């Protein structure tokens, strides 16, 4: 049994505000698929026009950096393929995400508090 949770935040390249509700819905589906491949469970997902929050429960055998690289790489490729209009924001880099990310272990705060924080992240109007 394990209880490893991480709060992940990915920011779009140049912090361009590119996501709408359809983009965020598809991102959540892609993240769930990638997490399943790693035997991880996404506990919560929300986002705004230029960043997303993901709370993930992962087993000890998963290197968090590999999970993050896969989440960002797969989602970037699929989103740019499925939503070609995103390309106008990334004419030079041809990448959806910034190279950096936030990953915080969730041990001190109750999961319910973190879920509430992520739920309060607004979706774009």
TrEMBL record:
Domain of life of the organism encoding this protein: Bacteria
Q: What is any Pfam family matched here?
A: Y1_Tnp
InterPro entries (UniProt xref): Transposase_17 (IPR002686), Transposase_17_sf (IPR036515)
* Domain spans labelled Transposase IS200-like: 1-121
Task: Give the SUPFAM superfamilies listed for this entry.
Answer: Transposase IS200-like
List the SMART domains hit by this protein, alphabetically: Y1_Tnp (SM01321)
Q: Which GO terms describe its biological process?
A: DNA transposition
Q: Tell me a Gene Ontology molecular-function term this record carries.
A: transposase activity
Q: Which NCBIfam families match?
A: transpos_IS200
The name under which this protein is listed is IS element transposase
Phylogenetic classification of the source organism: Bacteria, Bacillati, Actinomycetota, Actinomycetes, Kitasatosporales
